[in-house]
Amino acid sequence: MMLFLELFSTFFIIGLFTIGGGYAMLPLIQRKVVTENAWISDQMFTDILAISQMTPGPIGINSATYIGYTVIEQAGYNEFLCVCGSFTATLAVVLPSFLIVLYLCHVYRKFNHSSYFNGLMSGLRPTVVGLIGAAAVIMITPENFPDLKTWIIFVCSFAAAFWFKIHPMLILAVAGLVGYIIY
């Protein structure tokens, strides 16, 4: 039961101190889950991010769900408790945002015409972009980009999304097929 409390408190803190959504919380998830608690390896974290990116929903919540399951599974518990681990991590990461947004709706209605409030919001926007950029940089590790073929897949995927505006699901499907064929 202590592991469930640790999962809840870890993901509650992640949810509480992350501004900017799922991608912005990835550096904090990685630090708490991989570095501090050593619940999963860097490679498993990368795999979880790949799966979380491909499944519907926010990547941060999907990651929390999968990590909650994996942590409990690796501790040797049965499948029902693994699902409870998923639920615990997911609830914990969502709960702070829910409570904060509920409160901020009240604050926004009260102060949305204030120049100080608008200045605060203007300061938060570039911070969020920086946090998303940090998440991207963290993903660039030797495990993720080990050889030239992988870099070519990366550049082609980036070009397809950025310049040619190809749907992300099609890019994922083609990249997965190419990876399967060449590796």
Give a quick precis of the structure.
The chain has 183 residues and is mainly α. It has helices at 2-16, 22-36, 42-54, 59-74, 79-111, 115-139, 148-162, 168-182.
Q: Notable features of this structure?
A:
183 residues; mainly alpha; 2 domains; single chain
Map the helices and strands.
Layout: H1 2-16, H2 22-36, H3 42-54, H4 59-74, H5 79-111, H6 115-139, H7 148-162, H8 168-182
Helix pairs in contact: 1-2, 1-5, 2-4, 2-6, 3-4, 4-5, 7-8
Protein model, in words:
The chain has 183 residues and is mainly α. It folds into two domains: 2-141, no CATH class; 145-183. The chain has helices at residues 2-16, 22-36, 42-54, 59-74, 79-111, 115-139, 148-162, 168-182. Helix 2 packs across helix 6. It starts with a helix and ends with a helix.
Give me the Rg, rounded. Answer: 19 Å
- Number of domain modules: 2
**Residue fraction in strands:** under 5%
Query: How many helices in DSSP terms?
Result: 8
Helix content: over 70%
The biggest beta sheet is recorded as:
none
Order of helices and strands: HHHHHHHH
Structural class: mainly alpha
Q: How many strand segments?
A: 0
- Mean pLDDT, to the nearest integer, reads 89
- Uncertain residue ranges: none
Query: What would the principal axes of the Cα set say about the shape?
Result: globular
| Straight-line distance between termini | 41 Å
